[in-house]
Specification:
It comes from Roseicella aquatilis. The protein has 372 residues and is an alpha/beta fold. The protein folds into 2 domains: 241 residues, FAD/NAD(P)-binding domain, CATH 3.50.50; 125 residues, Polyamine Oxidase, Chain A, domain 2, CATH 3.90.660. Strands 1, 2, 9, 10, 11, 12, 13 and 19 form an 8-stranded mixed β-sheet that branches. A 7-stranded mixed β-sheet has the order 7-6-15-16-17-14-18. A two-stranded antiparallel ribbon has the order 3-4. Helix 1 crosses helix 8. The longest helix has 24 residues. It is elongated, with a radius of gyration of 22 Å.
C-alpha cells in the first residue's frame, strides 16, 4: 500500500496539513515522534500533565488583527479566546540589591490573545476532526528514500522495531534544523539546502519557561499587571499566566543560556525564580501551590545541539526549501518556513496550508493546478 501523503510531525503545522488534506478527500497518515500531539504546544496542569484547562509551557499568544487567516481558522473551529491580562502597573528590575521600579501600565495594541483552555485547545480542535487511525504516535521517522514514483519512510516504532511506509508525497512538518539533524535522506539533500535548513533558527528551541501557580492572583490586588522586565534575572521577562477559568499563575522566560541552565539544575533554577518573584511581587510570591519548568533545549524532538547557542527569531525567507530530486516528493511545513509569519502559531498554520497546496498540486487533485 502506498499512502497518498505522509506527514512527519503532529504539531500545529502537521495537523493543519492533515485537516486540509481530509477536507480535500485525500488520504494521509501523521507520524509523530512524541507520545502526544502538539509539538511545541503544551498546556499542562500543576503536575505537568497535559490538561484541558492548562498552563502554557510553549506559545501562549496570538494576534487576530495581525493574522486574519489564523483568526478565520480559530472562528471556524469554534474556539474561544481572551485577552492577555495587562491592567495594572509594570515592574522593572535594573540592578541587583535595588528595589524594582514601578511604572504606570498601558494597554498593548494589538492585544495579545490567549485560548480558553490553553493553546492546546487549538491542537485538540484540529485533531478532533481527523479520521480514526490517521495518527501514529511514538513513531520517529529515521530516514526517507526516493523509490520510483514514491518515497519510502523508515520508521522507528514504540517497541524499537523498524518498519517502512511508502507515500506519494511527504510533508515534513517539523523545524528545518531538526529535519536536517534527525532524518537521513537517500539521495542526500544538496549541501546548500542542508546548510539553509541547519542555519534556520528553531522557534522556542533555545528558551526555557518557568510558571508559578498560586491560589489567587494577589498581584492584581496590589494594582500590578504581573508584567515585569529584569536585567537582574534569572527571568528576563515575566507576565500574568492566569487562565480564563481563574487559575492564577505568573510565568517568565529565563534569561540565561542552555548550558548555564543545565549546570544549575531544576531545583536551583526554581529557587532562583521564586526568589526573583518575591523581590518583585512580595513575599507571597515565594510560596506557590506548584511550579513548572519547561526547558525546550532539552526536548530531543524540538532542539538540536545548534539550538543550545540560542539565536534570533526566524525571519521570512523566500525561495524553495527543497531542491533537486526531492522537489517532486517533499514539502517543508514547519512554522519557520512560513514566508509571512515564521516562528508564530500563524506561521505554522500558513506553512501547513502551503505545503498541503503543493502536495495536492503534485497529486493532481481536481481544483488544484498541476505542478509546473
Amino acid at each position: 500500500m502506498v499512502l497518498p501523503v505522509a506527514i512527519i510531525g503532529g504539531g500545529l503545522a502537521g495537523l493543519q496539513a492533515a485537516r486540509l488534506l481530509h477536507q480535500a478527500g485525500v488520504g494521509f497518515r501523521i507520524f509523530e515522534a512524541r507520545d502526544r500531539l502538539g509539538g511545541r504546544i503544551v498546556s499542562a496542569d500543576a503536575a505537568g500533565r497535559p490538561a484541558e484547562d492548562g498552563f502554557d509551557l510553549g506559545p501562549s499568544w496570538f494576534w487576530p488583527g495581525m493574522h486574519p487567516a489564523m483568526a478565520a481558522t480559530v472562528a471556524e473551529l469554534g474556539l474561544a479566546a481572551f485577552p492577555q491580562h495587562d491592567e495594572g502597573d509594570v515592574l522593572v528590575e535594573r540592578m541587583p540589591h535595588r528595589p524594582p521600579q514601578r511604572f504606570a501600565g498601558f494597554r498593548q495594541e494589538p492585544r495579545s490573545m490567549r485560548f480558553v483552555g490553553g493553546t492546546a485547545a487549538l491542537v485538540r480542535a484540529l485533531a478532533a476532526g481527523l479520521p480514526e487511525g490517521s495518527i501514529q504516535l511514538g513513531t520517529p521517522v529515521a530516514g526517507i528514500a526516493l523509490d520510483a514514483d514514491h518515497a519510502r519512510l523508515t520508521l522507528r516504532g514504540p517497541d524499537g522495531r523498524m518498519e517502512s511506509v511508502a507515500a506519494r508525497q511527504v510533508i515534513a512538518a517539523l523545524p528545518p534544523r531538526l529535519l536536517e539533524a534527525s532524518i537521513d535522506f537517500e539521495p542526500a539533500i544538496e549541501p546548500a539546502t542542508r546548510r539553509r535548513w541547519r542555519d534556520t533558527p528553531t522557534w522556542m528551541a533555545p528558551h526555557a519557561k518557568f510558571v508559578a501557580l498560586y491560589e489567587r492572583p494577589f498581584w492584581r490586588e496590589a494594582g500590578l499587571s504581573g508584567m515585569a522586565q529584569s536585567m537582574v534575572g534569572p527571568m528576563g521577562e515575566i507576565h500574568d499566566a492566569t487562565t480564563a477559568s481563574g487559575a492564577a499563575a505568573l510565568f517568565g522566560f529565563l534569561g540565561m543560556d542552555a548550558d548555564r541552565r543545565a549546570a544549575a539544575g531544576t531545583a536551583l533554577l526554581t529557587r532562583a525564580c521564586l526568589g526573583q518573584l518575591a523581590r518583585l511581587f512580595g513575599a507571597e510570591a515565594a510560596n506557590p501551590a506548584a511550579t513548572l519548568l519547561m526547558d525546550w533545549t532539552a526536548e530531543a524532538f524540538t532542539a538540536t545541539a545548534d539550538d543550545r547557542r540560542g539565536g534570533a527569531h526566524p525571519l521570512p525567507q523566500h525561495g524553495p526549501w527543497v531542491s533537486a530530486a526531492w522537489q517532486a516528493r517533499l514539502s517543508l511545513a514547519g512554522s519557520e518556513t512560513s514566508a509571512s509569519d515564521p516562528g508564530y502559531l500563524a506561521g505554522a498554520l500558513d506553512a501547513g496550508a502551503r505545503a498541503t497546496a503543493d502536495a495536492l498540486r503534485r497529486l493532481g487533485v481536481p481544483g488544484h493546478a498541476s505542478a509546473s
